[in-house]
Task: inverse folding
């Protein structure tokens, strides 16, 4: 299966579409009676009025979630190929994106983090252009605005502001205008939000938007390890990918090295940002899918023993299906 997606054969578009819904068999086999989907934060619904109640049936919810993942996978695939992050263009990034976005049952339905992945892929594309641009001020301003839009949908997305400065540290020498421009872009969006709150005599509510940033990072985690056994083959692939990347690190272009460093930081920031939402759900970790999928695709793009990497991928697919059904 991996070999099939190591090239840009147009047939793979149809195979990916079928694969997207194959990975959703478990939830279609036992659809919940209702599926709640609130795609805006409470402070955003204050000025963007959304009808209450379930807008979509459970079947429609899962179907549109699958369509969104498929579209994101193709866009993600194009970004990875355009920036030459793998040894050659292929459909592996899309394949691994769809696989990673099917790891857990909450990943298979509509959720704010799923919608925010559109913005995260867009941000990733812009970050990868920073090192190639003579002036990054406008790019950082745009990214700041995108982060603000994502924050209106899902508050933990605000932590992606940290990535602006981490990326500048990786790619560019210090220029205070570039460091400030991203923050200005973010504040531009929330300035207009604040004005709306002011017109409606609700500035006290506007101030409360930022309170979750002061949450303490949890020191105790209640984890049912059986729920996360599906991550074992993923971790094996991650380790193999890291070893492969280390082996080729100094033989790669400098831009490729910096790109993988940036994606590693993005993965960590997305992972840790859950602390800003005390009632976070497992779907939050969909934000880790884009940067994590690049690393997985890197391994399968460079792996040489076909029997091993094909078997490893099949083990992952069967593990996902097994834990989704049980």
Result:
């Amino acid at each position: 299966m991996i070999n099939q997606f190591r090239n840009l054969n147009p047939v793979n578009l149809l195979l990916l579409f079928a694969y997207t819904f194959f990975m959703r068999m478990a939830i279609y086999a036992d659809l919940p009676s209702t599926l709640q989907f609130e795609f805006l934060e409470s402070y955003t619904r204050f000025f963007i009025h959304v009808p209450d109640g379930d807008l979509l049936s459970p079947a429609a919810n899962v179907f549109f979630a699958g369509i969104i993942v498929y579209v994101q996978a193709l866009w993600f695939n194009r970004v990875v190929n355009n920036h030459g992050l793998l040894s050659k263009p292929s459909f592996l990034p899309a394949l691994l994106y769809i696989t990673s976005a099917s790891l857990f049952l909450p990943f298979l339905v509509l959720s704010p983090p799923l919608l925010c992945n559109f913005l995260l892929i867009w941000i990733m594309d812009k970050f990868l252009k920073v090192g190639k641009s003579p002036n990054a001020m406008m790019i950082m301003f745009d990214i700041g605005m995108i982060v603000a839009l994502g924050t209106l949908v899902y508050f933990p997305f605000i932590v992606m502001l940290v990535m602006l400065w981490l990326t500048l540290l990786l790619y560019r020498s210090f220029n205070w205008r570039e460091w400030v421009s991203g923050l200005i872009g973010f504040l531009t969006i929330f300035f207009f939000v604040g004005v709306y709150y002011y017109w409606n005599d609700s500035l006290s509510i506007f101030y409360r938007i930022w309170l979750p940033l002061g949450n303490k990072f949890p020191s105790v985690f209640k984890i049912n390890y059986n729920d996360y056994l599906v991550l074992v083959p993923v971790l094996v692939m991650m380790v193999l990918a890291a070893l492969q990347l280390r082996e080729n690190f100094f033989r790669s272009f400098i831009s490729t090295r910096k790109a993988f460093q940036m994606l590693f930081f993005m993965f960590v920031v997305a992972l840790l940002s859950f602390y800003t939402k005390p009632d976070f759900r497992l779907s939050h970790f969909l934000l880790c899918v884009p940067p994590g999928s690049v690393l997985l695709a890197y391994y399968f793009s460079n792996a040489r023993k076909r029997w091993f990497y094909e078997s490893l991928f099949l083990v992952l697919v069967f593990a996902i299906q097994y834990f989704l059904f049980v």
In short: The CA atoms of residues 66 and 131 lie 34 Å apart.
